[in-house]
């Protein structure tokens, strides 16, 4: 009896304190991250310069944990861009989320990431990060930006999520999960 | 008896396991990071931001801060000073970070008095010389040689290796002609104008004639009017104080309109993208690099490349830049200070500041010349490698050590 108690206490200590550190990542099955949809979280109608108009989007992701234990989403980052011509996307922002979110075993969580674009900033983003491509495609930056703001409600152009990375931790190891997606899903 | 002792010991261990950590004990080290993923410096800012996150992961995977993981709070502030100030307050008041990675010159300088008052160590990607004088900005640190030092070194390298040696200028040298110099930069931008005072001072030291500055926005896609105005002065050498896209625009227009000058570029305008965006217009362009270019064969570069592939496989390797490498040096210098502060039992603002100021001849590799930081001088060094683009590659032109070259002036140049 005493031996059993002793063993139980020692085992409890070893596991409770995590003395052995992380187990190998082999026991952790990678969770998945999927773009479910994009929403206009709040809308302000277009106005010409010098008025500053925000465009507030929400990206809803489905995060599925296939494991028998909970996992924690420690941070998540992705880049999103809008379509200016068929098949021609321009990256506009790279939001990062670092709130710790737990996903229970065998569960799918929805995660909402809100991101704000600014009608005064987006033109400079296009100029500095893709100026040569904009010129090659013979696009007029003010016209493209206005079109995006005015047509976002109908999602008449594509929104692309790329370079997505989620950092997952768990009692059975850590993992990096990569994802990308498009909305609307044509 | 032995059994009783064992049981008591096991009970004591179990109790210890169940007790909460003592107040103030840290299991993670929280650090804030202000980055520009969307604003007018996003052409260099995105790569730098990715590099910060990758380097933090490397630190956490390799022992962290004496076993304490870094928890990174990374924000895009779009290069807007008010946004940076607001986010800094969030770092300070809610995230409770112990230090901050900064980005732009305008916001870093604007925050300098606040971080000093808050005793918040602030390691910046802005290399403004103002941030290197601890009398003015005691909690501000930089990991690369400051803008003024870089600009003086670039001008010196052109003077030594081109003006004094190139047969193109032989006739003018023999006639005693002074080299003519002017600058292209966005005057309203603190980063772009940060080195102008030092450059004009250096031009006087080297005996240059200085012409009228040309105002070019960071977002310029056309600079023909500025080129035509500059042409009237017939410059031998021009300085570009903007970042890559804008510098590329000016170089392309200068080539098309036959400006006929040589070019030196500030470090944030001089990278792998400049060559891609300008093709032949970048040939012969000179600029400083505070670390190795991405993929160069230098110590630790293998880890940088490994982590870019591991953490951001969706970003093509050919799009990665020297900015990633800079961020690694940024993070590894911070790690050095945090480890020292933690070992001293002072993982707090004053303790981290003190730790930074004990760093002597220390380099994390990655082509960063050894860094020394003291309590009276936060400039991390005086040695600058200046490169020239030759056949689309960066070739070392000259290593310039300003302290050795002008020992009587070096101390006086602190902070401007």
Sheet with the most strands, sense and barrel status of chain A: 6 strands, antiparallel
Q: Classify the fold: give the CATH topology of the largest domain in chain B.
A: Rossmann fold
Mean pLDDT of chain B comes to: 93
Largest sheet of chain B: 5 strands, parallel
Radius of gyration of chain B: 23 Å
Helicity level of chain A, as a percent range? Answer: 10-25%
Q: Helices and strands in order, then pairings?
A:
The complex is a heterodimer of chains A (186) and B (416).
Chain A: H1 2-17, E1 32-42, E2 54-65, E3 71-85, E4 88-93, E5 96-97, E6 101-103, E7 107-118, H2 122-136, H3 141-151, E8 159-170, E9 173-183
Antiparallel strand pairs in A: 1-2, 2-7, 3-4, 3-5, 3-6, 3-8, 8-9
Chain B: H1 2-18, E1 28-35, H2 42-61, E2 69-76, H3 81-95, E3 99-102, H4 105-118, E4 122-124, E5 140-142, H5 147-163, H6 170-175, E6 180-185, H7 190-193, H8 196-206, E7 209-210, E8 214-215, H9 224-231, E9 237-240, H10 244-257, E10 262-265, H11 272-278, E11 286-289, H12 301-311, H13 322-343, H14 349-356, E12 383-390, E13 393-401, H15 402-405, H16 407-410
Helix pairs in contact in B: 2-12, 2-13, 3-4, 5-8, 10-11, 13-14
Summarize the structure.
Chain A has 186 residues and is α+β, with helices and mostly antiparallel strands.
How would you describe the overall organization of this protein?
The complex is a heterodimer of chains A (186) and B (416). Chain A has 186 residues and is an alpha+beta fold. Chain A has a single domain, classed as Sandwich (Immunoglobulin-like). Chain A contains three helices and nine strands. In chain A, the strands form two sheets. In chain A, strands 3, 4, 5, 6, 8 and 9 form a six-stranded antiparallel β-sheet that branches. Chain A has a three-stranded antiparallel β-sheet with strand order 1-2-7, with no helix packed on it. Chain B has two domains: 28-145 and 295-381, Response regulator (Rossmann fold, 3-Layer(aba) Sandwich); 148-289 and 385-413, Rossmann fold (3-Layer(aba) Sandwich), CATH 3.40.50. Chain B has helices at 2-18, 42-61, 81-95, 105-118, 147-163, 170-175, 190-193, 196-206, 224-231, 244-257, 272-278, 301-311, 322-343, 349-356, 402-405, 407-410; strands at 28-35, 69-76, 99-102, 122-124, 140-142, 180-185, 209-210, 214-215, 237-240, 262-265, 286-289, 383-390, 393-401. Chain B has a five-stranded parallel β-sheet, with helices on both faces. Mean pLDDT of chain B is 93; it is low at 9-24. Chains A and B meet through α1, β3, α2, β8 and β9 of A and α1, α2, β2 and α10 of B.
């Amino acid at each position: 009896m005493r031996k059993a108690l002793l063993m139980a206490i020692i085992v409890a200590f070893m596991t409770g304190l995590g003395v052995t550190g992380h187990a190998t990542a082999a026991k952790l099955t990678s969770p998945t991250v999927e773009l479910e949809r994009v929403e206009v979280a709040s809308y302000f109608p277009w106005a010409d310069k010098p008025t500053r108009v925000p465009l507030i989007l929400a990206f809803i992701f489905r995060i599925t944990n296939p494991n028998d234990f909970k996992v924690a989403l420690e941070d998540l980052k992705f880049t999103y861009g809008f379509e200016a011509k068929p098949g021609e996307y321009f990256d506009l922002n790279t939001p990062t989320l670092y709130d710790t979110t737990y996903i229970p075993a065998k569960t799918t969580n929805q995660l909402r990431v809100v991101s704000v674009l600014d009608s005064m900033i987006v033109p400079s983003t296009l100029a500095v990060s893709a100026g040569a491509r904009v010129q090659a495609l013979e696009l007029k930056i003010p016209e493209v930006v206005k079109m995006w703001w005015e047509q976002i409600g109908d999602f008449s152009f594509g929104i692309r999520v790329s370079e997505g990375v989620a950092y997952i931790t768990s009692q059975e190891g850590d993992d990096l999960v990569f994802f990308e997606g498009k909305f609307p899903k044509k | 008896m032995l059994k009783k002792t064992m049981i008591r010991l096991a009970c004591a261990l179990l109790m210890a396991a169940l007790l909460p950590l003592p107040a103030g004990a840290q299991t993670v080290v929280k650090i804030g990071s202000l980055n520009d993923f969307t604003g007018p410096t996003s052409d260099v800012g995105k790569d730098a931001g990715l590099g910060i996150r990758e380097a933090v992961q490397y630190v956490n995977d390799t022992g962290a801060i004496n076993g304490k993981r870094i928890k990174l709070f990374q924000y895009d502030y779009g290069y807007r000073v008010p946004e940076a100030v607001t986010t800094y307050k969030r770092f300070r008041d809610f995230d409770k970070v112990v230090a901050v990675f900064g980005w732009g010159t305008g916001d870093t300088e604007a925050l300098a008095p606040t971080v000093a008052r808050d005793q918040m160590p602030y390691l910046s990607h802005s290399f403004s010389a103002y941030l290197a004088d601890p009398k003015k900005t005691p909690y501000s640190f930089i990991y690369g040689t400051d803008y003024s030092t870089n600009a003086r070194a670039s001008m010196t390298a052109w003077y030594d290796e081109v003006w004094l040696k190139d047969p193109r200028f032989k006739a003018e040298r023999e006639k005693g002609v002074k080299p003519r110099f002017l600058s292209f930069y966005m005057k309203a931008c603190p980063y772009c104008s940060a080195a102008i005072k030092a450059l004009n001072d250096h031009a006087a030291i080297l005996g240059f004639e200085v012409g009228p500055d040309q105002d070019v926005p960071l977002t310029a896609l056309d600079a023909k009017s500025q080129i035509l105005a500059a042409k009237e002065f017939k410059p031998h050498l021009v300085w570009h104080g903007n970042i890559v896209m804008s510098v590329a625009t000016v170089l392309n227009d200068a080539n098309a309109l036959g400006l006929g000058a040589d070019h030196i570029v500030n470090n944030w305008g001089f990278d792998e993208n400049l060559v891609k965006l300008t093709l032949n217009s970048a040939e012969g362009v000179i600029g400083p690099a505070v670390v190795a270019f991405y993929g160069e064969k230098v110590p630790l570069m293998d880890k940088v490349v490994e982590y870019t592939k591991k953490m951001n496989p969706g970003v093509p390797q050919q799009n990665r830049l020297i900015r990633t490498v800079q961020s690694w040096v940024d993070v590894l210098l911070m790690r050095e200070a945090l480890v020292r502060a933690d070992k001293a039992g002072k993982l707090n603002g004053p303790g981290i500041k003190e730790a930074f100021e004990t760093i002597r001849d220390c380099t994390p590799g990655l082509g960063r010349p050894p860094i020394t930081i003291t309590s009276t001088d936060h400039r991390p060094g005086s040695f600058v490698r200046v490169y020239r683009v030759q056949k689309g590659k960066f070739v070392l032109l000259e290593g310039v050590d300003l302290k050795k070259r002008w020992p009587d002036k070096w101390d006086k140049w602190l902070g401007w």
